[in-house]
UniProtKB/TrEMBL annotation:
Name recorded for this polypeptide: Transcriptional regulator
Span of domain OmpR/PhoB-type: 124-218
Record InterPro entries: CheY-like_superfamily, OmpR/PhoB-type_DNA-bd, Sig_transdc_resp-reg_receiver, WalR-like, WH-like_DNA-bd_sf
Pfam families: Response_reg (PF00072), Trans_reg_C (PF00486)
Organism name: Aureimonas ureilytica
Assigned GO CC terms: cytosol; protein-DNA complex
Keyword Phosphoprotein appears in the UniProt entry: yes
Alphabetized GO MF terms: phosphorelay response regulator activity; transcription cis-regulatory region binding
Regions recorded as binding DNA: 124-218
Domain Response regulatory as annotated: residue spans: 2-116
C-alpha cells in the first residue's frame, strides 16, 4: 500500500514516514501544497495524509482540486486542535476523516487502516481469503492459524491483492503501489515476488490471468 504524506513540518513528516514504513507502507512525501497536489494528481495512492496549513497552496484547496478532478483516494486531514472550522471545511471539501494536532501516532495509523479497508469494501481489520488471514493492525498473515514469514515486499504484495481480492490487478498496478516514486521500478520483479508468495502460501490462491495480471481468489 502506497501513502502520500503532505506536511510542511519536517520533523512531523519524518515521524509519520518512519511510523508508516514500520507498519509496512510505501511512503512518498511533499512539504508544500503545490508539490502535494502534483503528486496526488499524477501518482496512484491508496491514501493521503494531508495537512491543512501548507505553504504555496493550503490543504483544503489541494483537496478541492483533487476531488474536482475526480481523484477518489481516501484523504486523512491533519488539522489544528482549536480550528473547528478547518474540520468542517475539510469534510465539505471531500476529506474522509480528520485528526487534530497534536495526535498519537497510533490513532493516525488506525484511522488510515480504516480508510483503506473501507475504500476496498472491508469492514474488519482482519481480511479473510479461504484459510488465509491478513491482520492489517499487526501487519501479519497466517494460513490456518500458522504465521507466514514474509519479507516487506511480499507482505505489500499480499496486502494489496487481499484488499482487492476478486479483482484483476496488473503487474504495473502492483509495481506502482509497492514502490515509492524514487524507486527504479521493474514490473518483471513482480513475477518473482508472486512466485515466492505462492510457495509460502502453499495453496492456490493467486490466479494468473493471462495477459492481464493476477487475481486473489478464495479457496472456499
Amino acid at each position: 500500500m502506497r501513502i502520500l504524506v503532505v506536511e510542511d513540518d519536517a520533523q512531523l513528516s519524518r515521524q509519520l514516514g518512519e511510523a508508516l514504513r514500520a507498519a509496512g507502507y510505501v511512503v512518498d512525501s511533499a512539504s508544500d501544497g503545490e508539490d502535494g497536489h502534483f503528486l496526488g494528481d499524477t501518482e496512484p495512492y491508496d491514501a493521503v495524509i494531508l495537512d491543512v496549513g501548507l505553504p504555496k497552496m493550503d490543504g483544503i484547496s489541494v483537496l478541492e482540486r483533487w476531488r474536482r478532478d475526480g481523484r477518489t483516494m481516501p484523504v486523512l486531514l491533519l488539522t489544528a486542535r482549536d480550528r473547528w472550522s478547518d474540520k468542517v471545511a475539510g469534510i465539505d471539501a471531500g476529506a474522509d476523516d480528520y485528526v487534530a494536532k497534536p495526535f498519537h501516532m497510533e490513532e493516525v495509523l488506525a484511522r488510515l487502516r480504516a480508510l483503506i479497508r473501507r475504500a476496498a469494501g472491508h469492514a474488519s481489520s482482519e481480511i479473510h481469503c479461504g484459510p488465509l488471514r491478513l491482520d492489517t493492525k499487526s501487519s501479519r498473515a497466517t494460513i490456518d492459524g500458522t504465521p507466514l514469514k514474509l519479507t516487506s515486499h511480499e507482505y505489500r504484495l499480499l496486502a494489496y491483492l487481499m484488499h482487492h481480492q476478486g479483482e484483476i490487478v496488473s503487474r504495473s498496478e502492483l509495481t506502482e503501489h509497492m514502490y515509492d516514486q524514487d524507486f527504479d521500478r521493474d514490473s518483471n520483479t513482480i513475477e518473482v515476488f508472486v512466485g515466492r508468495l505462492r510457495r509460502k502460501l502453499g495453496i492456490d490462491l493467486i490466479e494468473t490471468v493471462r495477459g492481464l495480471g493476477y487475481r486473489m481468489r478464495s479457496s472456499g
